[in-house]
Amino acid sequence: MAAGKRIVLATFGSLGDLHPILAIALGLKERGHRPVLVTQVEHKPKIDAAGVEFAPLRPALADLGERNEVLRRVMDQRTGSEFVIRQIVMRHVREAYQDIAAAARGADFLVSHVLTLAVPIVADKLGIPWASTTLQPLGFFSVYDFPVLAQRPELAHWRWLGPRVFSGLRGLMKRMVRPWCAEIFRLRADLGLTRGHPDPLFDGEWSPRLNLVLFSSVFARPQSDWPQSTVVTGFPFFDRGEQGDGMNESLRSFLECGPPPVVFTLGSSGVYDAGSFYRESAKAAINAGVRAVLVIGNDERNRPDGALPETIFVTEYAPFSELFPRACAVVHQGGVGTVGQTLRAGVPMIVMPFSHDQPDNADRVRRLGIARVIDRRKYGAGHAASELRRLLGDERYRTRATAIGKIVRAENGVRAACDALEATIASATAR
User: Fold this and answer.
1) How many Cβ atoms are within 10 Å of 301's Cβ, its own excluded?
2) Checking DSSP bridges between strand 292-295 and strand 312-315, what pairing results, if any?
3) Are 414 and 23 in contact (CB under 8 A)?
4) Side-chain-side CA neighbours of residue 2 (13 Å)
5) What is the Cα–Cα distance from 112 to 22, expressed in whole angstroms?
6) Whether the Cβ atoms of residue 346 and residue 325 lie closer than 8 Å to each other
7) Domains of the chain by range and CATH?
């Protein structure tokens, strides 16, 4: 491609939503482009440290209320997704439009995220071409590979009924959530735009030019009802921490002084609604006779009480790309970023899903033969220890995880995404 382009990439959510987009932004910068990452102000230190231009996107977490209560509602299995869409995304879509439009002045191209529903509106208003991204298979609601829904997980047991039944169910879901999008339709009207796609939360979120699927095809095979503009890139990985790159020396020493441990983590969102997870996990590790690393985040409520044996190491942060390959298993919440890192590490896992895409991600790795799943309501020291024994005692989990890890490591999500973006930008700007 000729002269570098100003490319505005918008994302919203946790580190699992930020990291893939930041990885792509860095890839674009290395190719001579001028990426701008538009997201919540909470992520500004990480973006600044990476050397990528930042622009703020409302709402900030602090605008939504008391942090722990907000995150508890976000992670609720039954109502978390509706809370995020109706009370956060839709309620602030006008502010998001203003912020993205401000960042997009003079831009050559836009890139959206599933929760940045203002990007297509900005693209239409300013006449800027755009691409969409899909971070998890749930986003497609494919009738040929229907996901496990956090709100109604039992529906997955009826997959044998086939695509005709699930096509009807998908249509029903569209009709149910269409009223949630009223503010999008009002905003478009106020801007002098047409009503746009009737289903902004379904088909309307995908660009007809390019939809980047930012996960591996080994995790979910492409389906015939995915958008025609879809390009599967593989996972774009990034996990540098605000606390500095690399693993701290005390953790490194722990890893080197004994057999590979089990890593327990709840990612960057579930960690703020952990409950008794870390206390029960420490007990489970002791009961199962394994060493363990507890990645507890910066919420001190997650630190187990009392003295722990020397076989258990507690840390606030660790780069998953360095830690997971040195583990014998990972126990986690099922966020797609954590899943991707575990797949790449080639180790088996136990998933205790919270909400959103996590139950579906958990079901997919279970069907791959590399994981076991524990219902969050049933997670306790005894149950977790029993599941760990089953996981670690059956070599088939390790063998299958190793094979999948080789596939994922051979992919280069950043390069594939940047290649597809450059080709699309060249085609769009040549017209």
Assistant:
1) 12
2) parallel
3) yes
4) 6
5) 13
6) yes
7) 6-235+412-429 (3.40.50.2000), 249-410 (3.40.50.2000)
Distance, in Å, from the CA atom of 87 to the CA atom of 78, rounded to the nearest integer, reads 15
Long-range contacts of 306-314 (CB under 8 A, 24+ apart): 308/282, 311/258, 311/261, 311/285, 311/286, 312/282, 312/285, 312/286, 313/250, 313/251, 313/254, 313/261
pTM of the model: 0.95
CB 371 within 8 A of CB 365: yes
Q: Where are the beta strands (DSSP E) in 246-404?
A: 262-265, 292-295, 312-315, 329-332, 349-351, 371-373
Q: Which residues pair with 294 in a beta bridge?
A: 264, 314
What is the pLDDT of the chain when averaged over all its residues? 94
CB-CB neighbours of 390 under 10 Å: 12
The DSSP 8-state label assigned to residue 59 in this structure reads P
Helix (H, G, I), strand (E, B), or coil: what is residue 130?
strand
Cα–Cα separations (whole angstroms), residue 367 to 259, 260, 262, 364, 370? 28, 25, 21, 5, 8
pLDDT tens for 291-346 read 999 999 988 899 998 889 999 999 999 999 999 999 999 999 999 999 999 999 99
Sign of torsion over alpha carbons 56, 62, 65, 67: positive
pLDDT grade for 423, boundaries at 50, 70 and 90: very high
Looking at the chain, how many residues does it have? 431
Is the peptide bond prior to 59 cis by the omega test (within 30 degrees of 0)? Answer: yes
Handedness of CA 361, 364, 370, 371 (dihedral sign): positive
Please list, in sequence order, all residues whose beta carbon lies within 8 angstroms of the beta carbon of residue 203, skipping any fewer than 6 positions away.
197, 227
3-class secondary structure, 274? coil
Distances in Å between the Cα of 326 and the Cα atoms of 95, 265, 278, 330, 343 are 44, 15, 20, 10, 13
Sequence-ordered alpha helix ranges (H) in 309-357: 320-323, 336-345
SS3 content of the chain, % helix, strand, coil (to 5): 50, 10, 40
CA-to-CA distance for 153 and 115, rounded, in angstroms? 22
Is pLDDT above 80 for 244? no
Contact predicate 158/169, CB 8 Å: no
Contact between 401 and 347 under an 8 Å Cβ cutoff? The reply is yes
